[in-house]
């Protein structure tokens, strides 16, 4: 065992120990140990520590079965320069530390492997990668046996940690013991409560059994009442359905009769319409006759105007005729123009005045006759227009009656549809009543069967067979 160097003692010095930082925590790893041609696999705890603000790390290997066997390797700048020159590394000291931690993590995942070569109390830690052709070595790290001071220091630290764990475990055990005692007390209390509850449960079971028997009897009575009510309700609904069917038949007959009446009224309406068309044709003919008579009157008035004296008389007669007839207003201008043209001719035809006066007298008589005929024709037109107005009123009244009849027909049809829907609703209600009665019967039968099974399975009750017999009889 070599003497501990000053660099190794820094990691156990109390002053420097405060600045020590663990880079790779305590992890057991399998290591292939080779000693004088003998290979064996052993487990070692691997720890990597570093002092802050200094290029100084320490790799420590402790055998799992025997913690007195400890190997260490303290690497500073000088030691790293030797390793870098020997193994041709391309990183700085801090890069070497980072790569070392990554390599140990991959060893923990069994991607890389560790081997410890020992020869003449000299140890070399080898980190390699297995392959089918050749193992590739990534790093060699020289290791040395730790001195007794270092071993004792780390053993004391592990003992202190174990003592702390033991104290924490003992406190936890005491807490667990207290909790167990509390739980035991609660268990005892719960047992007592369970015993008291078991007695109460028996009492409640007896009460529930008695209540259930009473409820079953009540349910049986209600089932009987429901069956009786169901029969009476079915009879009542059948009578209602028969009465509704009779009403529907009566309504159908009435609808048929009303439709026939509507058809007859429509035929009458068409006949009245044809008569109205004929009357309109007659009114058109009368208007044509009036126009023809007015044309004759104008032609006769043209013949009358031949002289100035006749013009004055004709003007008087025209003014009187304008007040009575109000028809020849447009022809005045034409007559005046013709009279002005005939003034020049009057000088040559004075000897014919006597003849013209006679003709004018005859014309006046004819005009009076025509006026009388015109008055008669106007009275006839007024009568026929009154008749046409009355017919139009009758037609309007018939239209109103037809609309009222159509409304009544639609109302009857709606009542018919409502009666159909009411019949369907009554049928649905009867079906629902049947379904509910069947469901209630099945429900109470299930309850009765369950009660019978409960009574038969309960050996503490003596009256169970009698109750079951009662239910079977009912």
From TrEMBL:
Residue span(s) of domain SAS-6 C-terminal coiled coil: 150-197
Primary residence: cytoplasm
Protein's UniProt keywords contain Cell cycle: yes
UniProt superkingdom: Eukaryota
Signal peptide: none
Pfam families registered for this protein in UniProt: Sas-6_C_CC, SAS-6_N
Species this protein is from: Anopheles coluzzii
Places the protein is found: Cytoplasm, Cytoskeleton, Microtubule organizing center, Centrosome
GO CC, alphabetical: centriole; centrosome
InterPro entries (UniProt xref): SAS-6_C_CC (IPR053997), SAS-6_N (IPR032396), SAS-6_N_sf (IPR038558)
Domain Spindle assembly abnormal protein 6 N-terminal: 34-142
A GO biological-process term: centriole replication
Keywords: Cell cycle, Coiled coil, Cytoplasm, Cytoskeleton
Keyword Cytoplasm belongs to the record: yes
Coiled coil: 159-236, 269-380
The protein's name in its UniProt record: SAS-6_N domain-containing protein
